[in-house]
Amino acid sequence: MSTAIAPPYLDPEARAARVDALATACGDRVEFGRSVDGEPLVAVRVPSPRPDAPRVLCCANIHGVEWVAGLVALGLLERVAAGAPELDELRARAELWVVPCLNPDGYRNTWTRGGEGTLAQLRCNAHGVDLNRNYPLPAGTRRLALPGAGSLEPGRATWCGPSPLSEPETAALHELCAAQRFHAAAGLHSFMGTLIPARVTTREHWAAYGQLCRSFAGAQRHRRYRRLASRFIDAWTGEQEDHLHHGLDCWAICVETFTVAASLRQHLRAPSRFWRFNPRDPSPWIDSDVGGLAAYFSAAVALPRPAALSRSRTGP
Ligand SMILES: [Zn+2]
């Protein structure tokens, strides 16, 4: 079996062209920044019939090698363009924004290397920074020296960069989120087959994320993902979800498409970094996860924002 990157995965030019075509079909193409290497950072805005509708964000491919995440984001837009009924409720309730690739330099690097290389080479941006460890930590918290919590050492796969929001990609996403005041967001990754909400410690937020994760999983047809989180044992990492929840008052979850077991089975047959993260046939995962995303966003916009939920439960 070939280890080369193969269709339906798209080379960087074909990917950009698909995003442009879907923007024309669905709404507006919004360029909100540039990567280190000067590639445009593009969002597609899908307007709602309600002018005052809350806005929700689906953001994929913050990690360069996780191409299936980008295909899930494009699948969401393809179903909007096709008028799929599974998105009717969400479209009536919310304005949808989709960022199919927040790390175009990592994506291009993965393509140039044919999907082979170290995790640090394929995951990070052109400065070697793990963009999902480059967000500010909530006030009063600190980074612990734990695996996955973000490394202070350049060259590591989880190097958090010289300072929070040091990278043009994360700074641009922060500015976009601050300007649009998204009510809910989902960051798309692979390959753990789980839902990882922002880290929260209050009972109200824990219960709300439980409800949101059940909404997501209940709408999945292929494989239902479970919540991976703890109220008591967790670490601050500089991840996008934590920043959106605690810094910008937005419901935020990380969706890990594909499962460890399915990844392992595929990897044993065709050892390659790329095929560890991306299913040979992504279509069942895309179908399943698009349904989950639509249900998650619809449930999230029915909730008050995180800060308002706290106030409503604890009184003035
Ligand atoms: Zn990832």
Describe the structure.
The chain is of the alpha/beta class. It has one domain: Zn peptidases (Aminopeptidase), CATH 3.40.630. The protein has 12 helices and 8 strands. The chain has helices at 12-26, 67-81, 88-93, 104-112, 119-123, 168-180, 203-218, 240-248, 260-269, 273-277, 283-301, 306-314, and strands at 28-34, 40-46, 55-60, 95-99, 184-190, 194-197, 226-227, 251-257. The protein has an 8-stranded mixed β-sheet, sandwiched between helices. Helix 1 packs parallel to helix 2, helix 2 packs across helix 11 (283-301) and helix 7 crosses helix 11. It is globular. The model has no long low-confidence stretch (mean pLDDT 93). The structure holds zinc ion. Zinc ion (ZN) binds at residues 63, 66, 189.
Secondary structure: elements and pairs:
Layout lengths: L11 H15 L1 E7 L5 E7 L8 E6 L6 H15 L6 H6 L1 E5 L4 H9 L6 H5 L44 H13 L3 E7 L3 E4 L5 H16 L7 E2 L12 H9 L2 E7 L2 H10 L3 H5 L5 H19 L4 H9 L2
Parallel strand pairs: 3-4, 3-5, 5-8, 6-7
Antiparallel strand pairs: 1-2, 2-4, 6-8
Helix pairs in contact: 1-2, 2-11, 7-11
The structure holds zinc ion.
Zinc ion binds next to loops.
What is the ordering of alpha helices and beta strands? HEEEHHEHHHEEHEHEHHHH
Radius of gyration, in Å, reads: 18 Å
What is the overall silhouette? globular
Bound molecules: zinc ion
Strand residues, percent: 5-15%
Largest sheet: 8 strands, mixed
CATH architectural label: 3-Layer(aba) Sandwich
Regarding CATH, which class? Alpha Beta
Number of domains: 1
Q: Cα distance, first to last residue?
A: 63 Å
Our count of helices gives: 12
Which class do the helix and strand fractions yield?
A: alpha/beta
Low-confidence stretches: none
- Helix amount, in percent? 40-55%
CATH topology: Aminopeptidase
Mean residue pLDDT: 93
Annotated CATH homologous superfamily: Zn peptidases
Question: What's the total count of β strands?
Answer: 8
- Widest sheet, order of strands: 1-2-4-3-5-8-6-7
